[in-house]
Amino acid sequence: MNIVSQRPFEVEIPLPVRTYDIDFAGIVNNIVYVRWLEDLRLEMLARHFPLNEQVENNIAPVLLQTKIDYKQSIKLSDTPMGKMWMKSLEPLRWTVNATIGVNEQVAAIGEQVGIFVNLQTNKPIRIPKVLKQKYSKVFS
Description:
- By secondary structure, the chain is of the alpha+beta class.
- The protein has one domain: Roll (Thiol Ester Dehydrase, Chain A).
- It has helices at 3-6, 30-48, 51-56, 129-138; strands at 11-14, 59-70, 81-89, 94-102, 105-118, 124-125.
- The longest helix has 19 residues, at 30-48.
- The N and C termini lie close together (11 Å).
């Protein structure tokens, strides 16, 4: 099995540390990791199911849960990289996993669970067909 089939939709992007990301102890504040997960998820969706396609189909993703395990501190001088991939795609919900690292060392592990909703009704909908098809191709 190759790495692509192990991590569907994987993206990797640099995550810049800004001066305003640093807390009084000189390390990246925990809330910044939530923003980085959002940046990663938006990049993944941009590559596989862009926002304009979602809006055209009157749907949008909604987060149900975010978990982050902090492993080591990140400082202003560090250059973190983030990776995110689709862990699972169920009929009504999706789960993504992520790592944030510095110099090949894992600084944080994240997981987000979400759904898609109809923008007019705000009710959950099934995973969009286009996304299911792309996800299924990874395993064929």
